[in-house]
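Title: Comparing notes on inverse folding

I've been comparing how different people in this forum approach sequence design from structure. To keep things fair, I'm posting one structure and asking everyone to reply with a full sequence. Here's the target:
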């Protein structure tokens, strides 16, 4: 299955609790961290929910 690399570029401090939980569920623990996840519709939906805090890395 295809993978996708995502990077947390903004802190979840001061965001809604739902967005904080989404960041945590994706596995982020600090700003600047890059994670590799499977490219599934569920992961894409989580990324779309917090698109202002993450970026897709090539």
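Reply #1:
Here's my take.
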């Amino acid at each position: 299955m295809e993978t996708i690399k995502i990077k947390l570029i903004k802190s979840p401090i001061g965001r809604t609790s739902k967005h904080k939980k989404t960041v945590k569920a994706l596995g982020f623990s600090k700003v600047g961290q890059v994670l590799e996840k499977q490219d599934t519709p569920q992961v894409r939906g989580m990324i779309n929910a917090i698109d202002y805090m993450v970026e897709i890395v090539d």
